[in-house]
Amino acid sequence: MKTRIWICWLIIYFLSSCATSPEGFVVQGHVEGMDGKKIYLIADMTICSSQNKKYDTLGISVVENGEFSFRGSVDSVMTAMINTDSMRGGILIFLENTGFEANMDFVRLENTLITGGKEQNVYNLFWELDKRLFIEGSKLRMERNEGILKKMPEQVKEATRKLEIFNEKLDKDESEVIRQNPETMVSAYRLWSRLSKLSLEQLEEKAALLGQKAKNTVYGQEIDDWLRRLRATTPGALAPDFKAMTTVGDSISLYAIKAKYKIIEFWASWCGPCRAEMPHMVEIYNEFHDKGLEILGVSLDRDLELWKEAIQKDGQSWLHCSDLGYKQSALARLYVVHSIPQTLLLDENNVIVARGLRGNELKAKLSELFP
Fold first, then answer.
1. Which candidate, 110, 160, 169, places its Cα nearest to that of 134?
2. Cα distance between residue 15 and residue 37, in whole Å
3. pLDDT tens-digit readout, 60-106
4. Which of 256, 269, 300, 263 has its CA nearest to residue 282?
5. Distance from the Cα of residue 242 to its chain's centroid
6. Is residue 344 within 8 Å of 236, Cβ to Cβ?
7. Cα separation of 122 and 124, whole Å?
8. SS3 per residue for 131-197
9. Is 80 exceeded by the pLDDT of residue 54?
10. What b-and-e string marks burial along 230-256, b requiring 16 or more CB atoms within 10 Å of the CB?
11. Sign of the Cα pseudo-torsion (136, 137, 142, 143, in order)
């Protein structure tokens, strides 16, 4: 009798233990036309990839009768991607220890929908905004472009007005999703993914909507770092000093350059738009150098000889430096340069006067400063 009671207690203990242990995540997926092909679940190491870390494969599933699945567990919410052998990047999924339904379309991504988990459901709200941007926004842009081609200024004006209203509405809707879900990692991820597209004012406004939990995520920390660097390199701020190698192997620092005004120009020998801009920069340098203008070219090259060759070929007779860091240049990161060419105009005290001026706009500003 005692033995039976003991066995019963063991069974109850075992069942209760199973009931309280984490069940992990299960992704049940459906996709058409891919029977026999592999589908991958990959940890999204986007932020870490800049540190040369590789993606981590969490699961591989072979499609059978249009179905695939993944099982596993995570310690906390994890950004991952579902993709195929022929797909670059992937479709985001925010893994939690819960069940997911993934209806996939790798050709028409707007038809894809993954549901399950609080974070994923919030992400889907942003996904709907992106689909509106792609579908409705494309129609308005086509309407505007058609007016430009057919030289119909009224159509261009009206389409531009509609597009501005449309973009403003999407921006407000995005902020509202963040406001309603301030503590989710997805809200921080959303802002992180759009850092280069948002102005300082926009980013500060949206970042203020995040809760502390979201700010503590890796994405929240990246946003905070970006904001710090952007504030330090916006007009009115004192430009951060730096020192870098010249073409002959010496070093030069920004603050050591004495001039009434100076331009920091981020460029690279491999950048087509940068090279196309050089005739304008040569003209500007020739016109304003004797009046007190200096230019410091900061190259995002990685090959010393190609860098030197481009300088000579383009007739860039001003000062140059680089850390040869290519797209991971520490100098570009310091000044939040995510696309080139990019210019910053500084006064004699190294205070930033303007940012992003090129061609005629830059020349007009200098004409104003050098009467």
1. 110
2. 38
3. 999 999 999 999 999 999 999 999 998 888 899 999 999 999 999 99
4. 263
5. 25
6. no
7. 5
8. HHHHHHHHHHHHHHHHHHHCCCHHHHHHHHHHHHHHHHHHHHHHHHHHHHCCCCHHHHHHHHHCHHH
9. no
10. beebeeeeebeebebbebeeeeeebee
11. positive
CB atoms within 10 A of CB 180: 12
Torsion angle, alpha carbons of 130, 136, 141, 147, to 10: 180
Structure tokens at 310: 């481009």
pTM: 0.83
Q: In this structure, what token pair is assigned to residue 334?
A: 């310091």
Tens-digit pLDDT profile for residues 248-270:
999 999 999 999 999 999 999 99
Give the H or E element holding residue 280. helix 272-288
State the Cα angle at 138 between 135 and 143, rounded to 5°: 130
Tell me what pLDDT residue 47 has.
65
Sort strands 99-104 and 261-267 into parallel, antiparallel or unpaired. unpaired
CA angle 133–137–142, rounded 5-degree value: 150
Q: pLDDT tens across 195-207, in order? A: 999 999 999 999 9
Instruction: Report helix, strand or coil for 109.
Output: helix
Q: What is the DSSP string of 61-91?
A: EE-BTTEEEEEE--SS-EEEEEEETT-SS-E
Amino acid at 202: Q
Record the tokens describing residue 84, joined without a space: 């195929």
